[in-house]
UniProtKB/TrEMBL annotation:
Entry-linked InterPro entries: GH, Glyco_hydro_14, Glyco_hydro_14B_pln
Catalytic reaction(s) noted: Hydrolysis of (1->4)-alpha-D-glucosidic linkages in polysaccharides so as to remove successive maltose units from the non-reducing ends of the chains
Pfam families with a match to the protein in the record: Glyco_hydro_14 (PF01373)
EC number assigned by the record: 3.2.1.2
Family: Belongs to the glycosyl hydrolase 14 family.
Gene this chain is encoded by: AMY1
GO molecular function: beta-amylase activity
Top-level division of the source organism's lineage: Eukaryota
Keyword terms of this UniProt record: Carbohydrate metabolism, Glycosidase, Hydrolase, Polysaccharide degradation
Name of the molecule in the record: Beta-amylase
């Protein structure tokens, strides 16, 4: 957690540094927006010791525990079902609730990296499916 420590907050095994940030945002009636919603641990270099899935869940959970509106965005240009499914898991970590709105869900999602490549062939079909799934249970 060197980058976090360098930034001046402590996010260690026994201390949730993001919960502290979420509390401060709540005091100021702010929302929480976080990036890398599409990234998976298994797709990162083992040398980097990066765990984007765990990080996203930690940050979003901290916001939800503090009662914040929580939003996300993608960091990379991804046009595959695996990336979209990772976003969907982050958008509704407990899935779709047939009897009402899910307990935890994103307040918003910003799709970054709109490009000609996204709008071509199978990429566009996969994106359309993703958008429909994002709106499930709304």
């Amino acid at each position: 957690h060197a980058a976090e420590l360098t930034a001046g907050y402590y996010n260690l095994d026994d201390r949730d540094g993001y919960r502290t940030i979420a509390r401060m945002l709540k005091r100021h009636h702010a929302s929480l927006n976080f990036t890398c919603a599409e990234m998976r641990d298994s797709e990162q270099s083992s040398e980097a010791k990066s765990a984007p899935e765990e990080l996203v869940q930690q940050v979003l959970s901290a916001g939800w525990r503090e009662g914040l509106d929580v939003a996300c965005e993608n960091a990379l240009g991804r046009y595959d079902a695996t990336g979209y499914n990772t976003i969907l898991r982050n958008a509704r970590p407990k899935g779709v609730n047939k009897s009402g709105p899910p307990e935890h869900k994103l307040h918003g999602f910003t799709y970054l990296r709109l490009s000609d490549e996204l709008l071509q062939g199978q990429n566009y079909v996969t994106f359309q499916t993703f958008v429909k799934r994002m709106h499930a249970n709304q």
